[in-house]
Amino acid sequence: MDACGASHDALLQLPWLPVSISDCHLLAKSWFGDSAYHVLLTDTHSVWEERMDSAAIQRRAQELNKRLRAPVKAFFAHLCEVAQPTLTGSGGRPDSESLISLTRRDDGNISMKLKSELAGLPFYWEFHCTPAPVTVVCVQLVRPLLAMSQLLQRQVEQLGGLLMRKDVEIQDYRENGATLSRERLQTDAFEEQSHREDFMAKTLPLLQHDTPSFNADLQHLYATIVAHGNTRKRKLSEGGCVEEEPPTAEPDLPSTLAGPVRSEPGETGEQSANGKLDTARAKMADRASEQQPRATSSDPGRPSSKPKKKKVGLFR
Amino acid sequence: MDACGASHDALLQLPWLPVSISDCHLLAKSWFGDSAYHVLLTDTHSVWEERMDSAAIQRRAQELNKRLRAPVKAFFAHLCEVAQPTLTGSGGRPDSESLISLTRRDDGNISMKLKSELAGLPFYWEFHCTPAPVTVVCVQLVRPLLAMSQLLQRQVEQLGGLLMRKDVEIQDYRENGATLSRERLQTDAFEEQSHREDFMAKTLPLLQHDTPSFNADLQHLYATIVAHGNTRKRKLSEGGCVEEEPPTAEPDLPSTLAGPVRSEPGETGEQSANGKLDTARAKMADRASEQQPRATSSDPGRPSSKPKKKKVGLFR
Predict the structure, then answer these.
(1) pLDDT, tens digit, for every residue of B267-301?
(2) According to the UniProt entry, which residue ranges have a biased composition of type Basic and acidic residues (chains A, B) (predicted)?
């Protein structure tokens, strides 16, 4: 399952996108390779994933489409084309016949059923998402979110310091008899403690109606941190799993940001960016926009209309 | 396992404390009830937990201490007394004979072995921590961290707005010919974009040596958010698990902050605080300080020296 190993690094670079399937609102990451995919979903109560390689896709396609006799590559492009708009939250539907429905099963799994049309015949697909391993949740959510919180906390402190310096400057002007041309321009002196308390009291209730959970600023910060983490990850000589880490290794931010990803030794060089914000931003934009083109870009090679010509090749 | 149900709410109120066992640095939460405990550990690569009720503790104590014939209550206080200082990162050892060692096992589990002395005889204990369910990781880390990031992001935005208002005021003073008594008091105009880029470029590398991962400010914010969440949780009429939620439920911050905790219906009224910062802060302090007293506070009832008197009652 090489594709799956690599897919973890590809997924790590992707933002968590809000998606809505069957009136169920989730955050999603989806990676579609050449003939493999990796989907991550979360409602913040749990996290689900499905990793499928070429062989597994072939088997399931056979089970769901008895008459299908085509190789994976012949219908995978169509699967991407139909599934990706939904899984990236872009909402657009490639064709009106395509339908994706989500079901939460009693066993705690999530099933996404896809009904489409390929070569003039119905094409069925099902994503079977099961609870993700804790290590995946840590890599994709806990570690980045912890680093984000630390960075933002520091930024809050720094801005607080800047505000107090502004107040000192303002105070000096006033003491020298300076006056404002408009009274309303006068600001209150910044008091960190009281400001934070006031902010919390006012903002906590407001956030109750805040959607999506992962706004653009946070997605951007997530991308920056993940890119920075992968840069350090590339530099690490040993790329083992947690158990292989020296017991003296501190779980400090570097490891939080960039510790080796357990059970995903897949190379990251191609996927990762350097720690600079601009690069990270560019990459963020790339990733976000990539998701859409990825499906369509594969069309020239294997357009969804192409199979119609060799209908016999696909279905019997 | 009532105690375990309640323990989840008790744990949620606790801060993530940095602990160091056998040169292994982790973040930990531990709850010790009357004769039950719940331990959560994370190195941010994975999360482990062990929940033990009275019966399970009795069985293991028997296995590890063949000659032990005492009821749980007779030795549980001693177990708390020996284990809690380590699990709360307070470092202090109740007695020099007590030793706790941590081993990461190949199966991905964590084993903490405790050797102590009770009633003049060696007393052994083992914590068997296995990877925590994803739902627990979501409740204890993902949801609070996501809410923390959102709050901090908003605070950064608000402080940026304040800085720009200060600049407008300063600009007005200057335009009216005001001058500074000391040149060094002059500040540069705040430019959000460039400031953020500069901050990221400077802070990301610095954070590499940042420990612990969960500093006091973040622990405080964590406690505030969790307390706010539990307040809303108490107000919720239905207290089911994820699957029972109406599919139309938005995964927005209210649910992120306060959605019903899957598989932990334990009552929260006693544990939770209202959303106000002061109360949350007070509770935070309570929780943090509680951990220590909890073990010692049980001493008067059953001091570790007491068993010596009825040595026969403990060991045969």
Answers:
(1) 333 333 333 334 434 444 444 444 433 433 333 33
(2) 278-289
* DSSP codes of every residue in chain A: -HHHHHHHHHHHHS--EEEEETTEEEEEEEEE-SS-EEEEEE-SS-EEEEEE-HHHHHHHHHHH-TTB---HHHHHHHHHHHHHHHHTT----S-TT-EEEEEE-TTS-EEEEEEEEETTEEEEEEEEEEEPPHHHHIIIIIHHHHHHHHHHHHHHHHHHHHHHHHHHHHHHHHHTT---SSGGG--PPP-HHHHHHHHHHHHHHHGGG--SSS-HHHHHHHHHHHHHHHHHHHH-S----GGGS-TT---SHHHHHHPPPTT-----TTT---S-HHHHHHHHHHHHHHHHHHHHHTTTTS-TTHHHHTHHHHB-
Distance separating alpha carbons of residues A6 and B293, to the nearest angstrom: 49
Put simply, the answer to whether A257 touches B207 (Cβ < 8 Å) is: yes
- Both tokens of residue B10? 């008790």
SS3 B29: strand
Sign of CA dihedral A20, A25, A27, A31: negative
Query: Inter-chain contact A159–B154, Cβ cutoff 8 Å?
Result: no
The per-residue pLDDT for A133 is 96
Which chain A residue lies closest to B162 (C-alpha atoms)?
A163
Residues 6+ apart with CB under 8 A from B284: B15, B219, B220, B223, B224
Return the SS3 of B121: strand
Cβ within 8 Å of B, A 214-233: 214-215, 217-218, 221, 224-225, 228, 232
Every domain of chain A and the residues it spans = 3-132, 133-180+213-233
Phi and psi dihedrals of B46, rounded to 5?
-150, 170
Name the minimum distance, in Å, from the CA of B67 to any CA of chain A: 34
Partner-chain contact A211 B250, CB within 8 Å:
yes
**Least confidently predicted of A6-15, A94-103, A231-240:** A231-240
Report how far residue B178's alpha carbon sits from residue B180's, in angstroms, rounded to the nearest whole number: 7
For residue B139, list chain A residues with Cβ-Cβ distance below 8 A.
45
A242:B46 CB<8 A: yes
* Residues A90-142 pLDDT 10s: 865 545 556 899 999 999 999 999 999 988 889 999 999 999 999 999 999 99
Determine the CATH number of domain A3-132.
Answer: 2.170.210.10
pLDDT of residue B10: 87
Q: How far apart are CA B196 and CA B200, in angstroms?
A: 6
Cross-chain Cβ contact A225/B217 below 8 Å? no
- ipTM exceeding the 0.85 mark: no
Burial (CB count <10 Å: 0-12, 13-18, 19+), residue A1: middle
- Looking at residue B249, its pLDDT comes to 33
- Give the separation between CA A167 and CA A155, rounded to whole angstroms: 18
CB B115 within 8 A of CB B37: no
